[in-house]
Every structure is written in C-alpha cells, then in structure tokens.
Predict the structure.
Amino acid sequence: MSSSTDCLQRNHNFARIPVEEETPFIVLYTEKLKDNCRRFRHAFPGAKIYFAVKANNHPAVIQILRDENINFDVASWGEIYLLLQQGICQERIAFNAPSKIPREIKKAFLAGVDTFTFDSTMELEKLAALAPGSKFLVRIAVDNLGSFYPLDQKFGMGLEEALNSFRYAKELGLIPYGVTFHVGSQNSDPQAWVRAIEKVAALREGLASEGIELKVVDIGGGYPVCYREKVPEIEEIAAQVNSAVETLLGGDIELWLEPGRALVSNTAMLVTSVINRAQRGENEWLYVDAGVFHGLIEAWDSIGFEFQICTEKEQDSKKRFVLAGPTCDSGDVIGRNLSLPDSLTLDDRLYILSAGAYTNSLEFYNGIPFPRVILAPADAAQLSTNYRPEEIEK
C-alpha cells in the first residue's frame, strides 16, 4: 500500500525545479515514467499495454512510451494523428472510444488502424460502413464498485445485448476479436476486475456455443494512484487479475489493459504561485495562477480529487484556506478546506503533486478541438457588404 508520505518522497525534489521559470508550469520526471512502464510490464507479463492517450498527450510522454514498448488507446483522429507524427505504427493503435465521430472512423481506417471498440448497435453499423472488415471489441457493462469516479452509466452493453451484437457484427462483415470493460476511475478494489472477468467468462461461453472465438480480453483502466489516500499497488491488482484470467479464461487468450492515470500521474507536478490572499467572511482565500480550467479540472467540486500540495514553508504554522484559481468564475476552486502555511504570501510557490494525468491534456482533450466559429449566412452576407478593408487601410 502507498501512503501520502511515500507519494511526497517519490514525486518531488524542489532542488531540481527551475526557479527562473514563470509559473504555472508542469515538471515532468521522465525516469519515473519509464519506471512505471516497467512495473506494469513486469506485473502483467505477456499482456499488451495500451496507454490511454487522453491522460497525457505531451510528445515527450508519447516518445518515452513508444520506446518502452507501450501501445496506444485513442479516442479520436486527433490523437491518432499525433501518434503517427511521433512515428507510432498503426498496429500499435486501438481506436477504443465507444462513440466515435463518423468521419474520424473513416480517417483512422484509411490510415491503417484496424481495431475498434463499440457498445451500441448504431456504433456497430457505423464501423461496418466506414471501416469494413475491421476487427472489433465489444465493451460490456460491469459494476464500478470501489471506484472514485464511476463510468458504468455512460458505457457498456449487457451480456445478452453483447452476444446479439457479436452475431450482427459477423453478419455485417466485421471480425470478432475481443471483449473490453472498465471498472471505473481510481478503483481501489482489486476484486472489481475479477468480477468483470467473471462476466467475460460467461459471455465467452455463450459465444463459443455459436462458434465465435474470443482472442482478446481488454481489462481497461481504472488502476488507482496515490493522491492523499492509500491505494493498492499495481502488483496487488495484477496478482488477482492474472489469477482470474488463468482460472476463468485459460491461457489461450491475449490480455490487454489500458492504464492512463496509473502510468503518468506521479510523473509530474504542477508549479503555481500565489497571486492574491483575502478574507471572505469566515474563510481566508488563497488565489494562485492555475485553476480548475487550466489543468486541475479533477479538483472541481463535481469531481473532487484532493491533490497533495507542498510548499517551501512546510515548517511554518498551518491554517485552513480555500484555494482558488485566477479566473472570474466562482467555481474555480481547487480545495475548500486545505491546511497550508499561514505565512504564504504573494509570489510564493505551491507544488501540486501527482499532476501528470488529465492536466496538460485538457488543452486538447481526447484529441478533439474546440468548435470553430462561423457566421450565420445572413449575418455573413451583411458583414461582407458593410466591410470595406480599403477604408480601414486609409
């Protein structure tokens, strides 16, 4: 088990942080990332590891994972394009987002990506039309008990629905390949994966009776990392997963997994500075130059992750603060009851640990850009009539 103290020791070294850099910035520790890759490979020998690119899309991260023999789980053409630009071959990419933009399916298929996931009939029909003859995985619904952030309401088919989808997909010319599931983000119960594998075993039995063979079981992500609370180590989860796969599925099936947070979270810290301090009623507020809209969305009240925060004044007496970001939004709050040094003042730095996941990637999340702005046709016509560049030039 990991303690918060262990997290502090593993995640920061103030002496290595450049003092001349303007905050906010994220410090990435590449050796820690390599170590995480090796721990996963050792814990799941023989398995294929697919990094969830949505967790951290920085080119340096992608390059290290590429060289550490990690594959890639993508959610959009934007992420695929990023990987191709980094020299990742198509065979190492799986397009596992359950709901994909149609034009992006076609782009991916034409680029050579041939493995896709679905969990609805409409998505299946899109794949048959836009990626004919491709391999598919069906995402099934499993319980998310033990997870901090459940995903089971939005994703996954029931077993009977999944069985029918395999039949239909074969009729449409797609190639049955595997089953995938997700036990929910930050799941601290290793048995959650075991319970899900039991459902896969039941589905596999039904498929076998119809002559459909599963080649892959993808056990998804959700592996917990240390923020403030103790969590199981990956080796503890792997021991129970590997045993369940061997017992329930046998040794003739390929195991895939999709860690995101667990590979990158403790490889980086976000460095931010105090820009203001004020008393608001009974609460004292501390404002810093990065907030929930600039890398710390998981600290927002609706999600509620509690990041470990350090300062260079740890020996000073503490008091309770509301810690807020710089934006003009009342919801831009990182924490509402944080114990921090009372001596903190303008320009003091805060070091937010385990900031390697879902921070920098939010700028281009899931590889999907912000919507373009266009003018309504009538407005565009009027603007073009009234707009005379030559008058401005005069």
Observations:
- The first strand starts at residue 25 and ends at 28.
- Residues 1-11 have pLDDT under 50 and may be disordered.
- The CA atoms of residues 75 and 97 lie 5 Å apart.
